[in-house]
Amino acid sequence: MYGASKIFNYLLYNIIILIVMKLIKVKAIDCYVCTTTNNSLKECSDPFSTKNPINFLQKDCKSGRKNRSGLFPATSCIKISGVYDTTKIKLVIRSCALDSGSLTQDTELVRNSHCGIFRFDEQRMRGCISTCKEDGCNSARSTVVFSSPFIMAISIYIFSTCFF
Fold it and tell me: Left, alpha or beta for 19 (phi > 0: left; psi -120 to 50: alpha)?
């Protein structure tokens, strides 16, 4: 059986973590937002320069959420670049996205950075889907970084193994 002081310490630690998480204000990520086909909008094409005269940076980017109506603060920036297999049209999309919170990774675009063959607009494409979680990070190829819930889960695990 656990001692009362260990249980108290564990509960106090969890309460402090929850209070800190509530105090952190939700701010949407800043992402570049533009689309180009066959380099029709050269400023959006690769190589991308943040010094272009047209500024595509959208502050506090908002995105739709699966099975919900309205727009919500985005959690990730996204860049889709590729070529349609059938038409050979080159497409580059820079935007923001939101993890919908489903349990499986295969249905969440923001959790699936990869290069290769994928389907977009009901057509097969060859290219890359890149996601990232830092302001303005979709100007080039990016990678996924760990999120704060993951870090919190690890800290709770470490704390509980130290005290129990």
Answer: alpha
